[in-house]
Specification:
Blueprint lengths: L16 H19 L3 H37 L4 H49 L2 H6 L2 H43 L1 H48 L1 H6 L3 H53 L5 H14 L3 H26 L20 E11 L2 E11 L4 E6 L5 H8 L7 E6 L2 E2 L5 H7 E4 L10 H6 L7 H10 L3 H6 L17 H15 L3 E5 L7 H15 L3 E5 L3 H5 L3 E6 L2 E6 L1 H6 L3 H13 L1
Parallel strand pairs: 3-8, 3-9, 6-7, 7-8
Antiparallel strand pairs: 1-2, 1-4, 4-5, 9-10
Helix pairs in contact: 1-10, 2-3, 2-5, 2-9, 3-5, 5-6, 5-9, 5-10, 6-8, 6-10, 8-9, 14-16, 16-17
Bound molecules: adenosine-5'-triphosphate.
Protein name: ABC transporter ATP-binding protein
Subcellular location: Cell membrane
GO molecular function: ABC-type oligopeptide transporter activity; ATP binding; ATP hydrolysis activity
């Protein structure tokens, strides 16, 4: 028997029966866990909706009583029954309206609570998941889980379920009232259910297909838009605007076509409903009229029967739509439950090693590593990096340099063997200790929205302004930061606050300096900087590397020169290991690389 775990098979739509059942059960479990804390409120809401619908349905019966009993009594000078009917109508009207208002508030609160709970769970959980998950599950998909999927669920909760519950109760109570009042009219109403059923079935099968096409068409529009805007530089560089315009035009056309078909469908369904409603009212009037004439039915009862029949069809359209919103919400919940079922592949230790001060001795003990089982990246890796050493890691693209860096940062765990820091397996370190001891500065030097100071303070959230400025000074970033429109308070993502690639790196160096880790991993940016910026970055690096272990994925000659030791990697193995001078003087791979670099600089 196959078992689907997490997001596996999310893009498939050919599930076996067992798989479909598993997925359904998973989303039901999620739904159950969302509803469980709200059970008391759900019970109260159910009571309120039942009473409010009953109050609404009571109206025509009270009118019938007023006409059939009140009027004859009034003619006989007894105003009491009419007054009673009027008062009852007024009270049920007021109570009904009040309860509807209460129900609206209650159900909105419940749906908000569910959505907020779900939104938080998705955010916290996806953030907790390991890098392995994020490297294969694209950010586009995560964004859809948080936006369109949650929107589908919101739509179902906000309107769908309300309409279904209210509509269903309304129709049920009307049918009961009608049968109690006049069973013959009740039978006429029941007869109308057959054409109603056929029309609704026809509408649902068509609309389900069209809504699915419409969702795909609108998703394509969004994907096209997002791709164009995120790749706007490439679009401009390759003059792709015209092609994009044509493609976008076609997608808009497809979207328009399918929406036109949806409108046509409603153009048949809505009048169809009205016609069935009118014909049923006509038949109730005809049959009832004859029976009134023959004295078998009171005129007030006929009037109430007509009102009931008329109102019976009111919630029909919304109820027919329910199925669509239910389907997209169910699909959304299935996908979300898949994401929530994923487990971090790099779990936190159950019993972390006690608080400890790291010296920065890194040791790869017989490590084997593969991203996917069938493709080993590091076949057999042993490496000792003494505390305080600066290592430059070089090698051709795909050699495994970033993989090594990710293992030291514990973004991944080895498939076998262990990576140790001061003789403690990284798997036994508390995440807080791990992050304090080991910091990785990535190539893109990501800056979050907020001020420059906030971005530096990421390295030490409780840092004072003084410490932030000292860190910036140490790496030589202070001068340019002071030159920004608002100095340290400049918002890096606003116009005017834009910083260059070199400046971005200096900010991320200041961030790492402030964090003061014992081990620093640095994936050097490949983009070449101009000579003054390069010099600035080199100086900053020297300050940053002093007194700590450092592993630099080096792309620049000048960086290699400041290293104590150079490691050359090929196909997941270290093929050369020595001081820069020794290797440059030799005849190996690094000497060749070095010669090529030097030539490229001339
Ligand atoms: N998330 C991943 N899933 C599967 N395979 C991966 C993943 N990341 C890297 N690889 C593979 O692992 C191998 C080593 O990649 P790695 O990124 O470590 O190389 P690198 O030496 O850092 O290269 P570069 O200098 O181009 O960054 C490559 O063959 C790559 O295809």
């Amino acid at each position: 028997m196959t078992t689907l775990v997490g997001v596996e098979g999310e893009e498939r739509n050919d599930f076996t029966k067992t798989e479909s059942r598993q997925i359904r059960q998973r989303s039901l479990r999620l739904l159950g866990s969302l509803l469980h804390p709200l059970r008391m409120r759900l019970v109260l809401t159910a009571i309120v909706v039942v009473v409010s619908t009953a109050a609404q349905v009571a109206g025509p019966a009270i009118i019938a009583f007023g006409i059939d009993n009140g009027l004859p009594a009034l003619i006989a000078n007894n105003w009491y029954p009419v007054a009673l009917a009027g008062l009852a109508y007024l009270i049920t009207g007021v109570i009904g309206a009040g309860l509807i208002a209460w129900y609206t508030v209650l159900s909105a609160r419940i749906s908000q609570a569910i959505l907020i709970d779900l939104r938080k769970r998705v955010f916290l959980h996806t953030q907790k998941l390991s890098l392995e998950f994020h490297e294969s599950y694209t950010s586009g998909r995560i964004i859809s889980r948080q936006t369109s999927d949650l929107d589908s669920i919101r739509e179902l909760l906000d309107s769908g379920i309300n309409q279904l519950v209210q509509g269903f109760l309304y129709m049920l109570f009307i049918a009961i009232a009608l049968f109690t009042l006049d069973w013959v009219s009740g039978v006429v109403l029941i007869c109308s259910l057959l054409p109603l059923y056929l029309l609704t079935r026809w509408f649902q099968s068509r609309s389900q297909r069209l809504f699915r096409i419409s969702r795909v068409a609108s998703a394509k529009l969004i994907v096209h838009f997002v791709e164009t805007m995120t790749g706007i530089r490439a679009v401009k560089a390759f003059r792709k605007e015209k092609r994009n315009e044509d493609e976008f035009g076609e997608l808009v056309e497809d979207y328009r076509d399918v929406n036109a078909r949806v409108i046509q469908l409603f153009g048949i369904f809505d009048p169809g409903l009205v016609m069935i409603g009118n014909v049923t009212v006509g038949v109730v009037l005809l049959v009832g009229g004859f029976r009134v004439a023959e004295g078998q039915l009171a005129i007030g009862a006929l009037l109430a029967a007509l009102l009931y029949t008329r109102r019976f069809f009111d919630p029909m359209e919304e109820m027919a739509m329910f199925y669509n919103s239910y389907q997209s919400a169910a699909a959304a919940l299935e996908k979300i439950s898949g994401v929530l079922e994923e487990e971090p592949t790099v779990p936190d230790p159950v019993q972390p090693v006690d608080l400890w001060e790291s010296r920065g001795h890194v040791f790869f003990d017989d490590v084997q590593f593969a991203y996917k089982k069938d493709r080993v990246i590091l076949p057999d890796f042993t490496l000792d990096i003494p505390a305080g050493q600066t290592i430059a890691l070089v090698g051709s693209t795909g050699a495994g340099k970033s993989t090594l860096a990710k293992l030291i940062s514990r973004f991944y765990d080895p498939s076998s063997g262990s990576v140790r820091l001061d003789d403690v397996d990284l798997r036994d370190l508390h995440p807080k200790d791990l992050r304090r001891a080991i910091v990785m500065v990535t190539q893109e030097a990501y800056l979050f929205s907020g001020s420059v100071a906030d971005n530096i303070a990421l390295g030490k959230p409780d840092a004072t302004r003084e410490e932030i400025m000292r860190a910036a000074e140490a790496v030589g970033a202070d001068e340019f930061i002071r030159g920004l429109p608002n100095g340290y308070d400049t918002d890096v993502n606003k116009r005017g606050g834009r910083v260059s690639a070199g400046q971005r790196q200096l900010i991320s160096f200041a961030r790492a300096f402030l964090a003061n880790p014992s081990v620093l991993i640095l994936d050097e940016a490949t983009s070449s900087l101009d000579i003054p910026s390069e010099r600035l970055v080199q100086q900053a690096l020297q300050t940053l590397l002093a007194d700590r272990t450092a592993v630099i994925i080096a792309h620049r000659l000048s960086t290699v020169a400041i290293a104590d030791r150079v490691l050359v990697m090929e196909h997941g193995r270290i093929v050369e290991d020595g001081s820069p001078e020794d290797l440059i003087g030799g005849t190996g791979r690094f000497a060749q690389l070095h010669a090529a670099w030097r030539d490229s600089l001339v």
